[in-house]
Input
Amino acid sequence: SWDMASFVETAVADIRRRVGGERVICALSGGVDSSVAALLIHRAIGRNLTCIFVNNGLLRKNEAETVLAFFEQSELDVRYVDASARFLERLSGVDDPEKKRKIIGTEFIRVFEEEARRLGDVRFLAQGTLYPDVIESVSFKGPSATIKSHHNVGGLPEVMRLELVEPLRELFKDEVREVGAQLGMPEELIHRHPFPGPGLAIRVLGAVTPERLAVLREADAIVLEEMKASGWYRRTWQAFAVLLPVRTVGVMGDERTYDHVVALRVVDSVDAMTADWTRLPYDLLARISNRIINEVRGVNRVCYDVSSKPPATIEWE
Ligand code: XMP
Output
């Protein structure tokens, strides 16, 4: 729209004026907000923006590849850091959700700072903060909020001394999506559901192991595939699989099985503050369930979560 076209023009001019010839870094999560912020700043200052994409080993199936493929052809300077092993090592044996979050947040800062230090004199840190994040005292944003919450918790990480560039501060989500379209972002990225910074770690209930992550990744990929194929993905706020820490009895051929349970969580929401479970058609639920049970080894049961928020939350941890 005209509004967002003129927003892009003004924002680009503002960024140029503010940043001049200095270096800006940003943490790219592949989410809509950080991606649009990066594209906008790139349009303003080109290669003086460096983006850091940290693979924490907790991403969904093919996620890192998809995000990197897009940014590679968009000419941004993106540094890919595969820190999976570090994150998984620190998470080993941890089953408390808040401990998981803290470990992941702290480790993220460490990795990010190591990369930032490598770049030398960086003056600015770009973040995809939106208007609702500005007005809410506690907000969960991917890597950026990890930085904020870490800041509140204690010691001042080096990156906190950087000056913030937050070009989306006055926008709502739908406006950010329009800006993304203006900047040539593919539909696939523009309409991505929110994905939490701690990633699959808070969807593998209980201890996180590479094996359990692999099971969840496969189940989750089926959920997303079927949601997209049926047109329901765009109609919902979030849709994902959760791996439960229980096993149940089943039967396969003449064999008794004793395997994992996957819960499906699909919700409607406008801002994640409240949410209602999505009334998906039974045949879609059946297809998702059959595919998960037939295709994902180690899963013999699928449940649909019919709780609204409040009192339940969107995530299970
Ligand atoms: P809940 O589970 O609190 O989630 O209803 C509300 C929204 O926030 C996301 N979420 C997080 N995002 N770090 C994030 O970046 C987190 O620790 C976190 N916990 C929940 C959740 O996916 C939903 O969109």
Q: What stands out?
A: The chain has two domains: 2-190, 203-304. The longest strand covers residues 238-252.
